[in-house]
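Researcher: Here's the sequence for the chain we discussed earlier.
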Amino acid sequence: MIETVPTPAGDARIHWYPAPQARLVLALGHGAGGGVEARDLQALAAALPARGVTVALVEQPWRVAGKKVAPAPKTLDAAWTALWPALRKPGHPVVAGGRSAGARVACRTAAGLGAVAVLALSFPLHPPGKPEKSRADELTGAGLPTLVVQGAKDPFGRPEEFPAGTRPVPVPHGDHGFAVPKKADVGQEEALAGLTEAVAGWLEGVGAGADG
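Model: Thanks. This is the structure I predict for it:
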């Protein structure tokens, strides 16, 4: 089901993947270089409803409008904030998340919106080749239980580069889009299965805490 939601930046779209017996909603925003068709977002949308998690893939207004360049962070945050009531409508606790730029939006806004946790996929810890320009404060400042899933070869920040306390779950051989080379000892489907299993296991703990 696709729901169109008006925001100050234009219409956004929520792609709903409902769980038959939902206990959580996982809201996921996309990155600056792609949309909700990203392989990790699609893998989670396919796997998690059977585990009691409704997945909502959020398409930001700039993508809905067909633009190729993402707007400023403030505009992304405003759109995400405006559509949050639609994400809460099912009546379940909401985990804020996203990949890359979408993960940054989630980290910046989650606490203020009442999210119960944050899922950061491919968090862009720094621009490629510029580790001195760290965005670690954005990640650690979320103020909520946070799971980071990071490709082992991500040029925007490898798992070992993250600050103490974040402990990212590594995706072996994965790049920023969690693609793995064909010559790797882990196949693409296996890598994505590991990602979804790690997220599902973490969400079980989040759900228990939110229910309590």
